[in-house]
Structure formats: structure tokens, C-alpha cells
Amino acid sequence: MTLSVRQGEFVSVVGPTGCGKSTSLSMISGLAPASDGQVLVQGRPVTGIPDGLGYMFQQDAVLPWRTVLDNVAAGPRYRGASRTEARDRARDWVAKVGLAGFERYYPHQLSGGMRKRVALAQTLINEPSILLMDEPFSALDVQTREHMQDLLLDLWSGTSAAVVFVTHDLTEAIALADTVVVMTAAPATTKNVIPVRLERPRRVEEIRLEESFLEVYREVWDSLREEVEITRARGAGRVA
């Protein structure tokens, strides 16, 4: 597969189940080596975890024994900031994600959506230049998911971070992205790269009703449908 992402670009990656979407993030992050070819970040081969990289997983990585404030402050602390400095920065980010007043709460006291906000603050407080997101909102209900999508767009818009966002949700993929990459059935190749020429700033619940959005949705689904059918046929063959 071939995939290029520019600085400041938001790229959504969609494809059938098991095609390798998450594996592509693992290669960009240096957590898994490429089986062939090269992975370059800012022009340099990836031999470990690149500097300036943030990764938000499907399962949040909040630490259950730490409060909201100390979870968000963990990144700066690991990077050498004093406890006071890290906590001051964390308070700002806790407020940015709408959790002011919950600084002393522990993860088990939070809803799923609130935990996702903590995870988002954890990731963005480090000001990543590259943000990898692996279906981060898939476990949330529809209303909470749309709120998190809008929050992500608001916070990302003030940065120049490149984002690679893996999702199965075509509405989410299109509403967030500048570009949607459609992958083939496994072993994955890049089938189509579709630009999303929708104005920013965006509100997910509003933009998905626009005709221009529906046009992009049809184009993405037309490209993806065949790959989904191939994957289903392979699964049916194994069962048979």
C-alpha cells in the first residue's frame, strides 16, 4: 500500500474488517515494522517511535489509580516537566475538553464519554505533530460520539498536526477529514484517495445532512462496497 499524509492534513482511513487499517498505524508509530518497503515520518525512516507522535487507541489508556488531573499531567511529567508545571498545563486541558470540576475524580467515577475526553486531553497536551487515532469513538453512543467528533475538530483546528484516523464509520470518516483513503480487502492496498471539499469549521450533526456531504458519501461507499463484499465472501467460504 502507498499512503502519504501532509502536515496539517486530516486523513481518514476506511476499509473492510481485517484489511490492515490498524496495522498501518502501528507501522507509522514504529510499534510494528513494515514487511516490505519504507515508512517515512518527516522524511526519515521509522526505526522507533517518532518524535512528536500521539496515539489514541480504541480502548482508552487512562490509568485507573490516577485522578483525571494526574492522568492528563502524565505526559508532561514523563517528558521532564515539574509536577507543578505539568498539573498547571493539565488543568488547562481538562477545561478544554469540558471536564473542569472533575479534576479529582478517578476513571471508574466517569462515564465512557468523559473517559474519552480524558484520553483526548492526555494525547493533545503533548502537542503532537502527528496524531494517530484508531477508532477512538467507536464504543460511544451516537450523541456522545458526535460531541467527541466536534470537540476533536475544535481542538485540532488550532494546530498543524497531521491526523491519520481509522474508522469503520463512513459518516465519521467524511465529516472529520480532508481526505478519505479507501483500502482494499486484505492484503490491503490503497484503492482510492477521495478529497473531501467541505468547508471548515464543521459541525458533524449539521454537515451530514448537506447534499455535498451525501455526494462524497456515495463516492466513498461505491469504492468500498466491492471490498466489503470480497471480505464477506471469504468469510462465508471459511464457514462453509
UniProtKB/TrEMBL annotation:
InterPro entries per record: AAA+_ATPase, ABC_transporter-like_ATP-bd, ABC_transporter-like_CS, ABC_transporter_ATP-bind, P-loop_NTPase
Domain ABC transporter as annotated: residue spans: 1-210
Domain of life: Bacteria
ATP-binding listed as a keyword: yes
PROSITE patterns xrefs: ABC_TRANSPORTER_1, ABC_TRANSPORTER_2
Gene3D superfamilies the UniProt entry points to: P-loop containing nucleotide triphosphate hydrolases (3.40.50.300)
Keywords, sorted A to Z: ATP-binding, Nucleotide-binding, Transport
Protein name stated in the entry: ABC transporter ATP-binding protein
Signal peptide residues on this chain, from the entry's feature table: none
SMART domains found in the cross-reference section: AAA (SM00382)
Keyword Iron: no
Single Gene Ontology MF annotation: ATP binding
Lineage: Bacteria, Bacillati, Actinomycetota, Actinomycetes, Streptosporangiales
